[in-house]
From TrEMBL, chain A:
SMART domains: Sm. InterPro entries: LSM_dom_sf (IPR010920), Sm (IPR047575), Sm_dom_euk/arc (IPR001163), U6_snRNA_Lsm2 (IPR016654). Pfam families: LSM. CDD domains: LSm2. This is LSM complex subunit LSm2. Residues 2-76 form the Sm domain. It comes from the Eukaryota. It comes from Actinomortierella ambigua.
Automatic annotation (TrEMBL), chain B:
GO terms for molecular function: RNA binding. This is mRNA decay factor PAT1 domain-containing protein. GO terms for biological process: deadenylation-dependent decapping of nuclear-transcribed mRNA; P-body assembly. Residues 1-20, 308-353, 376-404 are annotated as: Disordered. Its main location: cytoplasm. Belongs to the PAT1 family. It is found in: Cytoplasm, P-body; Nucleus. Residues 332-341, 377-392 have a biased composition (Low complexity). The lineage of its organism: Eukaryota, Fungi, Fungi incertae sedis, Mucoromycota, Mortierellomycotina. Residues 237-703 form the mRNA decay factor PAT1 domain. Keywords: Cytoplasm, Nucleus, RNA-binding. GO terms for cellular component: nucleus; P-body. The keyword Lipid biosynthesis does not apply.
Length: 98, 710
C-alpha cells in the first residue's frame, strides 16, 4: 500500500519504467493501481534503434509484475516523509510478520 | 398463426386454433420475465443459485468449514485416482445402457425434469456439450432414448398406447384419454398439451419458454405417434418440412439475439456487487489515512507550498480533496467493505479458504497481508547477548548501557515511533467546544490531553536525556545525535517538549558537546563529515536558537558556564556547531545586558558572574584565534567565525579587543587584499568585505579603514 500511495503522488510526472525484458520506456505517468500496474502516455523507448516496433506506440499499459525499475524524478520524492510512511507501515503490520 | 409460429390449419380445414398472445416471437419484457422464472424454477428444483449470492444474506456457513487437518490432501489426491472425468468417459456406454434400461422400467422417470433442465441450455447446447462432454452425452442419451422409445410407443400404439410404458402414465400426459379420441387438429392437440403440461408443471406461472421446448418435443412425438392414423405420408413430410423451417427461423432469431446482447445477464447485479466488494476490499481499509499516509501528507504539504506561492492547490495524485468531495460515497463503500475487512482480520493466519467442491482456493490476501513468497527462518542466536538494555526498548535503567550502533539505532526508531504517534495525536486534537457542548468537549479535551501527555512522557524516556552523565561514554543522548537519523528527529521532538524538558535537553547537549561527532577537527576533510555538520546546523541549531533567544540571563550564564567548564573550548570552537553555540550564548547575553526586549536588566551579581565567565573563555581562546579559521574553507564557512569574533568583540574590554585584533589581523588583511585584488568576482569580493565588517563593526571599525600594505 505504501508503494501504491507513493506512486499516486507521481501521477503527472515523467518517469522511466524499466521492464524485465530490458525495455525501458519513458513517459508521463497517467495512473497506477494497487497492483502497481502503470499507464504511460506520450511514451518513448529509451533505445529506439533496438526496438523499432515501439516507435508507433503512443501510450501503454504495463502490468505491474513485469516492471523491474521505475526511475523517478528526484525532486518529487519526499524521502523524510517516505521514511515516516515506511515506519507507519511497519507499525501496522502484525507483530509476527517481519 | 399458432403457438409454434407455423400454419396449423390442416388441408381442407379452417384453423380454429388462432390464439391471441401466443406469438412465436416473444417481446423483450416477456423474455426478461422468462429469465426470472427460469431462475426461480432452477432454485426450486435444487439448482441452488443462492450460494453465488451471499452478499446480503451470507450466513457464515463457510466459517464452520473445517480448515485444519488438510495436511495430507496432497498425498491423498496425488496421481490420477481422482480423475473423475476420465473414468466417467470410460463408463459412458454403460451409463447409457443403464439409463435406457431404467427408462424402460420406470416410464415416469426423471424425463420431464431432466428435459426441462436441459432446456435451460438449449440456446447454447453446443457450448454446453463442449464444456461438459460426458454428462451431456449422458443427457443426450435421454433424448436418444426418448426418440427410440417414442418409436416403440408408436409401434405399441397400434395395440393401444394407453398402456404404453412411456406415455401411459401421467407424467407427460395426465389425461391419457386425450389420445383415445382422435384429435381434430394440431391446434387442439396443442391446446390439450398446454393444459396437461400446465397440470404436471408446478403451477400456471410455469415459464413458457421451457414449456415451449417441452411441447416441441411432445409435438414432435405427437407428430409421429398420433398423426399417423389421421395424416397421409405427404402431410407428414409437409409437417416435417415446416418444422425444419421453424427450427431454422428460430435459430436465426436466436443468433440475432445473441449478437445484439452478447453477454446479457451473464452476471446478476449481486454478482457484480460481490466482485466489486472484493476488489474494493483490497483498497479500502478501516483507516484510509494511515494506509495512504504518504500520498495524503505529500499532497497536503505540496498544496501548502503552492498556496504560499499564491497558486491554487491541486489534488492530482492524491485524493484528499476528492475524498472530501466524495466523502459520503466513500463512507458508504467503507461501510460495505467493513464486514469483509473485519472477516479477513478475524482470521489473519488463514490466507486461503477451500470451499467444498470448488476447484480453486479463495485467497484472502490483502495489501496488508500479502502472499508470502519467501520463507526465512528466524535466527535463533540472540544478537543482544552482550547488551542487556539494548534489545528491549525499556526506559533506561541503571547498569551497563550499550551504545553499540544497532542498539542506538533501535532507540532512534523507538523515538520515531512515539513521535509519529504524537503527531497523529496532534492531528486528532479535539475541536474547540461549540456552544451547548462544552461539557462533552471538555471531556474530550481532557482525555486527549492525558493521552498526549502519556505519549510525550514516553518520548522523553526514549530520548534517554536523563541518564546520568559519566555512566557511559558517549552519553546515550549524544550517541543518538551522532546518527543523522537521530539529528533529523530532534526538531520534531522539540515541538512536543515542555520548556523545562527543552532546557534539560540543551543542558545535556552543552555538557557533552565534545563527544558529538560533528565536533571533530577532521570533519571538514571528508564529505560525510561535512554532510553531518550541515545536518546538525540545519536541524538542531535553529530550534535551540529560538529557545535560547527567549531564556533569561541567568540561564544563559549557567549554560555557558557549563559549556566552558565541561568542554575543551579550543577544541569545540574549531567546529562549526561549537562556534554557533558560543555565538548564540554570547550574543544573547550581550542583548540581555543591554536591556533589550522585555527582559529585566540583569543585576550586578549576574553581570559580575558573566564577566568572570567571559574572561575565562577569552583567556582560553585568545592564543588560538587564528586557528578558528578552517583551512581551505569557503567564504560561506568563514561567516560563522567572523560572526563569533563579532560576538566576542562586543563584550570585550579594550585590552581584549586589542588582543582580538592582533589575533586575527592576518585574516582581516588577507580578506581585504583578496577583495581588492581583481582575482575575485565582484559579489565574492563583497562577501569577503561583509564578513570582515561583521567583526570590524563590532569594534567600531570598517573594512574601508584598513590600509592595505602594498
Amino acid at each position: 500500500m505504501l508503494f501504491y500511495s507513493f506512486f499516486k503522488t507521481l501521477v503527472g510526472q515523467q518517469v522511466t519504467v524499466e521492464l524485465k525484458n530490458d525495455l525501458a520506456i519513458t513517459g508521463l505517468l497517467v495512473s497506477v493501481d494497487q497492483f502497481l500496474n502503470i499507464k504511460l502516455d506520450n511514451i518513448k523507448v529509451v533505445e529506439e534503434s533496438r526496438y523499432p516496433h515501439m516507435m508507433a506506440v503512443k501510450n501503454c499499459f504495463i502490468r505491474g509484475s513485469v516492471v523491474r525499475y521505475v526511475q523517478l524524478p528526484a525532486a518529487s520524492v519526499d524521502t523524510a516523509l517516505l521514511q515516516d510512511a515506511a515506519r507507519r507501515e511497519r507499525q501496522q503490520q502484525p507483530a509476527g510478520r517481519k | 398463426m399458432s403457438f409454434f409460429g407455423f400454419d396449423t390449419t390442416l388441408p381442407g380445414r379452417n384453423g380454429p386454433g388462432v390464439r391471441g398472445g401466443t406469438n412465436a416471437t416473444l417481446s423483450l419484457e416477456e423474455q426478461h420475465e422468462l429469465d426470472r422464472q427460469v431462475q426461480r424454477y432452477a432454485l426450486e428444483t435444487g439448482e441452488d443459485f443462492e450460494i453465488y449470492d451471499y452478499g446480503e444474506k451470507y450466513d457464515n456457513l463457510a466459517d464452520e468449514l473445517e480448515e485444519t487437518r488438510d495436511d495430507l490432501n496432497d498425498e491423498t489426491f496425488a496421481g490420477t485416482d481422482f480423475d473423475f472425468a476420465t473414468s466417467t468417459r470410460q463408463m459412458a456406454p454403460t451409463l447409457k445402457q443403464e439409463e435406457e434400461q431404467y427408462l424402460k422400467q420406470h416410464p415416469a422417470a426423471e424425463a420431464p425434469r431432466r428435459s426441462s433442465f436441459a432446456s435451460l441450455w438449449e440456446t447454447d447446447q453446443d457450448g454446453f456439450k463442449k464444456g461438459l462432454p460426458e454428462p451431456s452425452h449422458a443427457a443426450s442419451s435421454i433424448w436418444g432414448s426418448l426418440g427410440s422409445t417414442s418409436a416403440k410407443g408408436v409401434d405399441l400404439g397400434a395395440q393401444g398406447f394407453v398402456q404404453d410404458p412411456v406415455f401411459g402414465t401421467g407424467t407427460f400426459f395426465s389425461g391419457s384419454t386425450a389420445f383415445n379420441k382422435a384429435p381434430s387438429s394440431l391446434a387442439e392437440i396443442e391446446d390439450q398439451l398446454r393444459r396437461t403440461a400446465g397440470v404436471q408443471s408446478q403451477g400456471p406461472q410455469q415459464q413458457e419458454r421451457k414449456m415451449m421446448s417441452l411441447e416441441e418435443v411432445e409435438a414432435a412425438l405427437m407428430g409421429i405417434s398420433t398423426a399417423r392414423p389421421v395424416m397421409t405420408e405427404a402431410q407428414i413430410a409437409e409437417q416435417q418440412a415446416q418444422m425444419a423451417k421453424v427450427a431454422q427461423r428460430r435459430a436465426d432469431r436466436e443468433a440475432k439475439q445473441t449478437e445484439s446482447a452478447k453477454y446479457n445477464g451473464l452476471m446478476t447485479q449481486s454478482d457484480k456487487d460481490f466482485i466489486n466488494r472484493i476488489q474494493i476490499s483490497q483498497l479500502v481499509t478501516d483507516d484510509p489515512y494511515a494506509d495512504d499516509f504518504y500520498c495524503q501528507v505529500y499532497t497536503a504539504i505540496r498544496n501548502r507550498h503552492l498556496q504560499q506561492m499564491g497558486l491554487p492547490g491541486t489534488s492530482s495524485g492524491g485524493d484528499t480533496n476528492g475524498g472530501r468531495r466524495n466523502g459520503r460515497a466513500e463512507q458508504r463503500i467503507q461501510q460495505q467493505v467493513q464486514r469483509i475487512v473485519s472477516d479477513a482480520k478475524r482470521n489473519p493466519k488463514r490466507t486461503n479458504v477451500t470451499v467444498q467442491g470448488a476447484l480453486g482456493k479463495i485467497a484472502l490476501n490483502s495489501v496488508l497481508n500479502p502472499r508470502q513468497l519467501l520463507q526465512v527462518s528466524r535466527r535463533t542466536t540472540t544478537e543482544s547477548s552482550g547488551s542487556s538494555a539494548g534489545s528491549s526498548p525499556k526506559p533506561p535503567s541503571p547498569g551497563p548501557i550499550s551504545t553499540k550502533s544497532h542498539t542506538v539505532l533501535s532507540w532512534i526508531e523507538n523515538i520515531y515511533t512515539v513521535v509519529l504517534a504524537l503527531e497523529q495525536k496532534r492531528r486528532q486534537q479535539p475541536p474547540p467546544p461549540r456552544p451547548g457542548e462544552e461539557q462533552h468537549a471538555a471531556e474530550a479535551i481532557r482525555e486527549w490531553n492525558e493521552e498526549y501527555a502519556v505519549l510525550a512522557q514516553k518520548m522523553w524516556r526514549e530520548l534517554r536525556i536523563t541518564v546520568p552523565i559519566g555512566m557511559v561514554h558517549p552519553h546515550p543522548f549524544i550517541a543518538i545525535l551522532n546518527f543523522s537519523k537521530g539529528k533529523k528527529v530532534i526538531p520534531r521532538v522539540l515541538r512536543h517538549l515542555l520548556p523545562e524538558q527543552t532546557l534539560t535537553l540543551l543542558t545535556m547537549l552543552v555538557a557533552n558537546f565534545e563527544s558529538l561527532n560533528v565536533c571533530k577537527a577532521d570533519n571538514y576533510s571528508d564529505a560525510q563529515g561535512i554532510q553531518e555538520t550541515e545536518l546538525f546546523m540545519n536541524t538542531i541549531v535553529p530550534p535551540l536558537l529560538g529557545f535560547v533567544s527567549e531564556t533569561p540571563f541567568r540561564i544563559v550564564v549557567g549554560l555557558l558556564a557549563l559549556f566552558v567548564e565541561r568542554n575543551n573550548m579550543v577544541w569545540v570552537a574549531r567546529s562549526k556547531p561549537g562556534l554557533a553555540f558560543l555565538t548564540l550564548f554570547l550574543s544573547r547575553a550581550e542583548t540581555l545586558k543591554q536591556g533589550q526586549g522585555n527582559f529585566m536588566v540583569p543585576d550586578e551579581r549576574e553581570v559580575a558572574q558573566w564577566n568572570e565567565l567571559y574572561n575565562r573563555l577569552f583567556s582560553q581562546l585568545q592564543s588560538h584565534l587564528s586557528s578558528l579559521f578552517i583551512p581551505k574553507a569557503t567564504v560561506v564557512d568563514d561567516v560563522f567565525v567572523w560572526r563569533f569574533l563579532a560576538a566576542l568583540a562586543v563584550g570585550a574590554s579594550v585590552e581584549q579587543q586589542h588582543v582580538l585584533v592582533t589575533g586575527v589581523r592576518e585574516q582581516v588583511l588577507e580578506n581585504v587584499i583578496a577583495a581588492k585584488s581583481s582575482r575575485l568576482t565582484p559579489d565574492k569580493a563583497a562577501q569577503r568585505i561583509a564578513n570582515v565588517n561583521l567583526f570590524l563593526h563590532a569594534l567600531g571599525l570598517d573594512a574601508s579603514q584598513v590600509t592595505v600594505p602594498m
